[in-house]
Amino acid sequence: MDITYLTVPTAFPLLIALIVATPVIAFIDGPVVHGLVAAAAAAAIAAVARASSGSESERLWRIARPFVWCLAIPAIWMAIQVMPMPFRGLSHPIWSSAEAALGEAVTGRISVDPGATLIALARYLSVTATIFAAAAVTIDRRRAEWVLFSLAGATTAMAAILVVQQLASMSLAGEGQGAGTRTALAGGSSLGVILGLATTIRALERHETRRGKSDMPLSRLALQTAMGIAATVICWWGLLAAATPQEIFAAACGFAMMALVLLIRRLRFGSLASMAVAAVAMIVAVAMANARPTGSGDLTLRYAHASGPLVSLAERMVADSGWAGSGAGGLAALTPIYRTGDELAVEPSAPTSAAEIAIGLGFPALWMIAIMVLMAAGLLLRGVMQRRRDSVYPAAGASAAVLLTLEAFTDASALGTAVTLLAAAILGLGIAQSVGRSSQWARIGPSAMPSALGAQ
How far apart are CA 300 and CA 314, in angstroms? Predict the structure, then answer.
């Protein structure tokens, strides 16, 4: 039985199609796109479930198990938000106001818009499905390479659009209006600087491991290295052309994390890895603490680059959200209630992803999600230190997790469909490649090693 590769011929092209579509999704993000993405993610998961044998599923579960529990918590909380609350104090105050206005009993819930919360839950589940479909697909090293190339190509295309916008003086989206086209393209470009570096390092590592073999000529090394460097340069150019200083700072932190982790791995400073990561975290914390805020006292909005009316509107909603939040996806229902005279033209969107999560799920959930993302980064970093080769994949996943955590406090790109798809694919790729084949054999047992060796 082949235990090395998952046979997922249908899931692989579906995943590639989702990735290469992200530059287009940045322009047409909306309910129709959400439905198509959910359908594609469901089809990919169904293909994986149908093609996987029992041993393959068990192996994938062993790799992904630490991440499953982290991903399940937000989904469970969103499901609780739409349930009828047994006590009035647990539900949102809007239901008490509705009961008083109607003069009849109204079932209270945490969510102000249960329908929107269910849609948000469906979107979250589709992103989770994409993560596990990507993990199943990219256990195969060859498919992992193609997924990395696709991710680098898609993010480079997004950055190239920003470069063309600057050179041609075109306008793609209104500034300061939440997760618009510019924000989505900048978010993709931020991930692109990590992916470009990952592509470059992967080419160099592959040449080193295949040195002396005829299947890795110098011409291929030169081409792949040049493509990786070009992708990195274009993504940085796009960021410098259109991104805000806060977004550039977040991208620089992710890029530095990627470079530092790979340098530690290369120099075999395993005992110093945790110290280096802690040092990076401290530098980031100090730098953000000394950055110039927009004037908002709330941390979720302090580093937002958005219009004053939008920040002011979001600040009032964040202040009233409470520990339980107002329901995921309920921002559109709350905006008309909180608008004032000079905010009538403000779109129903949050300036930052952190603010939207705090409004929808509450502050405890926001910080729990941030901690879980950083824990996932830590697990991926452990995979980097345990791999003899292909450590670039979990390193990219960990760096992307750090970048997205920082970027969540600067703009709303992390909750846009394009960036979430890219992030899901990167995380799935990192999860799948965070465990080496030798580790897998140790877990599965020596009796399975001959079949695994025969599949290589």
Answer: 10
Q: Which of 352, 261, 340 is nearest to 306 (CA)?
A: 352
**Rg, the chain, Cα only:** 23
Q: Taking the domains of the chain in order of start, what are their residue ranges? A: 11-455
DSSP summary character for residue 85: P
Phi, psi of 192 (to 5 degrees): -65, -35
Among 16-25, 43-52, 283-292, 446-455, the minimum mean pLDDT is found in: 446-455
Q: Cα separation of 190 and 400, whole Å?
A: 9
Counting Cβ atoms within 10 Å, is residue 168 exposed (0-12), middle (13-18) or buried (19+)? exposed
Q: Would you state the pLDDT for residue 450? A: 35
Q: How large is the average pLDDT for residues 309-320?
A: 84
The token duo for 288 is 């953000």
To 5 degrees, how large is the angle CA 146–CA 258–CA 411? Answer: 90
**What angle do the packed helices 273-289 and 392-407 form, to 10 degrees?**
20
Q: Which of 401, 392, 415 is nearest to 144 (CA)?
A: 392
CA distance 19 to 424: 10
Q: Identify whether the C-beta of residue 41 lies closer than 8 Å to the C-beta of residue 428.
A: no
Choose the most confident range, by mean pLDDT, from 3-7, 35-39, 246-250: 35-39
The neighbour count for residue 30, using CB atoms within 10 Å, is 9
Q: Are 421 and 22 in contact (CB under 8 A)?
A: yes
Classify residue 88 by burial, with Cβ atoms within 10 Å: 0-12, 13-18, 19+.
exposed
Give the type of residue at 251: A
Rounded CA gap, 399 and 426, in Å?
10
Residue 425 is which amino acid?
A
pLDDT band at 3 (very low <50, low <70, confident <90, very high): very low
Q: Is 112 helix (H, G, I), strand (E, B) or coil?
A: coil
Residue found by looking up tokens 């280096």 in the block: 276
